[in-house]
Write a structure and sequence with these properties.
alpha+beta; Cytochrome Bc1 Complex, Chain A, domain 1; 2 domains; 6-stranded mixed beta sheet; 17 helices; 44% helix
Length: 453
């Protein structure tokens, strides 16, 4: 549910919206082997963020290999033909840097934040593991146990994550977005050395990579470094993404999960929605505004309705996942006050759902007011301005957008598209997306204790 969304978005960093990159200097290059290079100069401090994005996420995994995209987050830190096992991380640490990786539905990314004069070394290390990963069968067995344990801790021990998986699987009945990024346990257990290496050879290649460098650098110097490191790599051409299409949604779906571990009841509804690339993408900017208007803090419609006026929830909000290669999601949620009594929780969830339904019906019927529309747009614009100050957020904005099939122009033009949204645009987007047949509603509540005979 909403908590589960936070878990999977920790990997994909969906908070890095296209807004973060507006109004900044961008230099782009394409190397002869297909590597796309973006340089975002920022000379305020002698540091850089160096990111390598691959156009492979969980939605690109071969059938039956769920979890393999995320698996590479672990495997890419093993040995290469030049480095020993664990040496990559050791070198970054010894040079005062920080590094990590994340996976989402449409991308896998690796990054380092480090002093600017260490950038050549980081580029050399990343270029090496792009094509020279030297895995052994024993690595697969060892790291497979690690990711299975990770799933147990993050998902199977978390009722909110479990119902989130069920909801996504129901929302996307055919499309691979219905498969969890971390993978299904039964398929994770079966991941083999040969299958993993096939995925590496298919997706980890120069033509499938985007290198983004933000910080205290000169673009021409970075391009020359890229030619000397990434430019020497060879690999296959990038193949077009081929994914199963989602059929039309014809019926509202509902998931109710009872679990004795639940302390915080949750109600959430998620709708299939166009993204900035797929479906009726003309609605995407208005959906960004709608999410802010409905759920962007204590002045938003849902918060005022559920928390302040009706007092049917302790928290309420909305979100829009629109930076996706295929269809996105629009969600609304409510968190009633914690309660361990299942009967009272059912009543509070029903009351919260009724309040949400009333708020949405009012918006669909009457539209939005000019003042709240302007407030929502200004808030989005302010978030975009603040985001420019963070090198990582800036690099993420471009990387996430480009691996989701968008362009640099899409990223740079985002603020203007947001500010151009009208009240009628918001109402039209809401009418197009907030349809019961395109939704999955989830209720998470504590399980009643069995009565002893």
């Amino acid at each position: 549910m909403k908590v589960w969304a936070a878990i999977i978005l920790l990997a994909c960093l969906a908070g890095a919206s296209p807004a973060a990159a507006a109004g900044v200097e961008v230099k782009t290059y394409t190397l002869k082997n297909g590597v796309e290079l973006l340089v975002l100069p920022d000379h305020r401090a002698p540091v850089v963020t160096h990111m390598v994005w691959y156009r492979v996420g969980s939605a690109d995994e071969p059938e039956g290999l769920s979890g393999v995209a995320h698996f590479f987050e672990h495997l890419m830190f093993k040995r290469t033909k030049r480095l020993k096992d664990g040496e990559f991380s050791k070198i970054v640490a010894e040079n005062g840097g920080q590094h990590n990786a994340f996976t989402s539905y449409d991308q896998t990314a690796y990054y380092q934040s480090i002093a600017a004069d260490r950038l050549p070394l980081m580029m050399k290390l990343e270029a090496d593991r792009m094509v020279n990963l030297n895995l052994k069968p024993k690595d697969i067995a060892t790291e497979r146990d690690v990711i299975i344990e990770e799933r147990r801790m993050r998902v199977e021990n978390n009722p909110s994550a479990l119902i989130g998986e069920q909801m996504m699987a129901m929302l996307f009945m055919a499309h691979p977005y219905g498969t969890p990024v971390i993978g299904w346990k039964s398929e994770m257990e079966a991941l083999s050395y040969d299958a993993v290496m096939d995925v590496y050879r298919q997706f980890y290649s120069p033509a499938n990579a985007i290198v983004i460098i933000a910080g205290d650098v000169e673009p021409d110097a970075v391009r020359q470094l890229a030619e000397k490191t990434y430019g020497r790599n060879r690999g296959p051409k990038a193949e077009p993404r081929q994914r199963r299409a989602e059929p039309p949604a014809l019926a509202a779906r509902r998931v109710v999960m009872e679990d004795s571990r639940v302390r915080q009841p949750e109600w959430e509804r998620v709708y299939l929605a166009p993204s900035y690339r797929a479906g009726e993408s003309k609605h995407a900017p208005a959906l960004s505004v709608l999410a802010q208007l409905l759920g962007g803090g204590p002045t938003s419609r849902l918060y005022r309705r559920l928390v302040v006026d009706d007092q049917t929830a302790a928290d309420a909000g909305a979100y829009y996942s629109g930076t996706m290669y295929d269809l996105g999601q629009f969600g609304v949620y409510a968190m009633p006050a914690p309660d361990s009594d299942p009967a009272r929780v059912r009543q509070s969830l029903a009351a919260a759902e009724a309040s949400v339904d009333a708020a949405l019906a009012e918006l669909l019927q009457n539209g939005v007011e000019a003042a709240e529309l302007e407030r929502a747009k200004r808030r989005l614009r302010a978030d975009e301005i603040y985001a420019r100050d963070n090198l990582m957020t800036l690099a993420q904005a471009f990387g996430r957008a480009l691996t989701a099939g968008l362009t640099i122009e899409d990223v740079l033009g985002w603020p203007d598209r947001i500010m151009a949204v009208t009240a009628e645009d918001v109402r039209a987007a809401a009418q197009a997306v907030l349809r019961p047949e395109g939704s999955v509603t989830g209720l998470l509540l504590p399980k009643a204790e069995a009565t002893k005979p």
